[in-house]
């Protein structure tokens, strides 16, 4: 099965999960069980599923066949090349292929001159006026191909301007940016391109990142700080005729195969094996030569040979368009697609499962506990009324007094609940004292002041190290506060469950470890790309300072923003079951007391009230059966493996 079919199956699974969650939310509303907090939590789950994207990055030096490989894997069923693929450089700037239904089909191009501002690409995405927009006519393949060539545009500038924009020019023949005879330099016209195109795969959430080689990767830190590390799969493409070149090695060691980097979803592709198809050699000899090149690349990159996939992207594309099974088999693309399918899609499904399962299970458990609590309260009330059959007025008065005492004891116990809320509020304030953005802003301002006033490289280096040390310390202190909140809530959950019969399970846990790892990753990047003796000695102090804050500190800020958002969601989730159960228990006690009062006052008969409660009991039992059904549907989908069968065609 092709990766396209597998991805279509994944998209259908995600859609089915959204439908099931929506049905669960509607059921809660119809049965008057939902509240603002629960509705918000389900809405956030649905929003995450809607915004879910599968990011696949293609990384290589120029002329390795990246664009042709993208065409062969994802767009062959379109019947033509979507991306331009010719000899030489075809992609001069990082290019994202995606689909946003809120925008018309187009190419958005960010001018290369924006590098002078040192503002990140993601920041520029907030300002559409900064981008040149080229409309795409999706009804005309010829027109589209012509417009898509704009990502290959170049500009001729002086070596000084090229240097200012991050392109080191040289007159050597081996230089990637060469000074021409007239003294001018060719550089990319655009800094970044976004192709918004309604192809079925892109509509389903696929995002493809096409990178233009070492020179562009090295001058666009956001690629290495954010886009590449966060990609679910990175395909590193080599050429079969050249093997691993020096520039290939530089990309591999710095950006893909570096120590401590992410290993999952990192795949090496040995492209253009059709160049080794020699009509004067037997098939066995050709395969032996391909195997020799695979083994050589594996040895050079220090990888097992089975992690390198020899393919011919160009022949695979032709074979798919012409339905030539023999040529497709010889191109070996199916082996690569199978590896991607078996590793990429299940890994992505696991991420979605992990992000959804715990949250949904907590909501589902809380709603079931609420119904079970109502049922327990009703049965207690029903038992009390049943005992009153044939009893005199004095017994009714005794029962009324008993419930009143129980109600007063619970309300007295509520003082402990209000005290917990007060301590919870204090601990929350302490947590955000460390984790909050105010603390980070204070740290950033102090670091900026130190670096701006520094006269020695050592001061700059120490300021950067201190920034990460304090950031990490704040995360560690936040984790301590989270543990204290969790310990307190576990104790109070248990106490209220024992003393008042509240149905409270264990509170949901939470950890900041993913953000601690992100800080470690960013510090490693800083230590290897900016905070080095060579950089500090050769670059101006102002340039180092600007790059640190506009590239690295910005990524740290985003990590803290995500941590704050996740912590706020967890804090609401950990207190919600307690609030719901306390409120429900109060209501049940009030109803029991009112019911006995009505019987005492003879405003209705005992039997009528018992019949009424039995009817409500049946309704609650039916609701419990019903919530099990709608909840189990979501649970089954969460654990359902991706299957390509019965998936609609992606073409």
What would you say the CATH architecture of the largest domain is? 3-Layer(aba) Sandwich
CATH third-tier fold name of the largest domain: Rossmann fold
Number of helices: 21
Oligomer: single chain
Protein architecture, described:
With 651 residues, the protein is of the alpha/beta class. It has three domains: 1-52 and 356-387 and 620-651; 54-153 and 189-331, Rossmann fold (3-Layer(aba) Sandwich); 392-603. It is 63% helix and 9% strand. It contains 21 helices and eleven strands. The protein has helices at 3-30, 36-50, 66-74, 121-124, 141-148, 159-164, 200-203, 214-219, 221-227, 246-256, 283-301, 313-322, 325-331, 333-387, 393-435, 437-453, 457-500, 513-529, 533-538, 541-600, 606-638; strands at 54-59, 95-98, 106-111, 132-135, 154-157, 185-188, 190-196, 206-210, 233-239, 266-271, 308-310. The strands form two sheets. Strands 4-3-7-2-8-1-9-10-11 form a nine-stranded mixed beta sheet, with helices on both faces. A two-stranded antiparallel ribbon has the order 5-6. Helix 11 (283-301) links the parallel strand 10 and strand 11 (308-310). Helix 17 (457-500) packs antiparallel against helix 18. The chain is globular, with a radius of gyration of 32 Å.
